[in-house]
Design brief:
alpha/beta, globular, 2,3-Dihydroxybiphenyl 1,2-Dioxygenase, domain 1, four-stranded mixed sheet, 127 residues, 42% strand, single chain, 8 strands
Length: 127
């Protein structure tokens, strides 16, 4: 068994697709009409057969409340692994990404946290 799809709630699918592709460098894999919204997934550019991230509309009241509360408490919605947190931090800063935590060593990992502009904090981690 393996994880093939995971999701993250977003306030606006078009804005999220632009951020995740233009700023983070993910590649759109699926973009299928699904009623009022779309089934949009992105994947890493270097692993297009890997785990897909669904940019899930936060239209349900429970989704909005969950997203709002974990953001307010400073809890990242998900984490992405990177080879070099400091290099990725610099690359993303140059693209205008706003970080809430600079690269920080915590035991055997180094991590940083940024705002995805779509209602989420995202953690990047180097093991």
């Amino acid at each position: 068994m393996k994880i093939i799809v995971t999701s993250i709630f977003v306030e606006n699918q078009d804005k999220a697709l632009a951020f995740y592709s233009e700023k983070l460098g993910f590649v759109k894999k699926e973009d299928i009409p699904a009623g009022e919204y779309r089934w949009i997934t992105v994947v890493p550019s270097d692993d297009q057969d890997g785990t897909e991230l669904v940019l899930e509309p936060n239209d349900h009241p429970a989704a909005k409340e969950y997203q709002k509360r974990i953001f307010a408490d400073g809890i990242p919605a998900t984490m992405f692994g990177v080879a070099d947190v400091r290099r990725e931090y610099k690359r993303l800063m140059e693209k205008g990404v706003k970080f809430t935590m600079e690269p920080t060593e915590m035991g055997e990992v180094t991590l940083a946290v940024f705002d995805d502009t779509c209602g989420n904090l995202i953690q990047i981690v180097q093991k």
